[in-house]
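Milestone 3.1: sequence recovery, worked example.
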């Protein structure tokens, strides 16, 4: 993802070219990458990475329940998901 952003930024800076669309394989189909392209008016022709039906033992989206009364999701172990929570005591968890 980073190399694609760098390449597009360099081409725009050096040649003044701005693509209308970008075609790539599913490896580039992450939400952040697609969002980055759309915000720059570049139409992504990229398959989206769908992890909804996971088979690797990781919980999928379907495993979580929506608690409308409390406006939150509940994980399969019965715990409420925190929307904005970081462990600041672990330096490896700090956002860049």
């Amino acid at each position: 993802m980073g190399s694609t952003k760098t390449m597009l930024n360099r081409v725009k800076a050096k040649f003044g070219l701005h693509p209308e669309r970008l075609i790539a394989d599913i490896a580039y189909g992450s939400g952040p990458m697609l969002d980055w392209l759309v915000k720059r008016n570049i139409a992504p022709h990229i398959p989206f990475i769908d992890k909804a039906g996971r088979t690797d033992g990781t919980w999928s989206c379907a495993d979580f329940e929506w608690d409308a009364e409390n406006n939150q999701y509940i994980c399969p172990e019965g715990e409420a998901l925190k929307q904005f929570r970081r462990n600041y005591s672990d330096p490896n968890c700090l956002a860049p």
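The mean pLDDT is 83. Strands lie at 21-23, 43-45, 65-67, 72-74.
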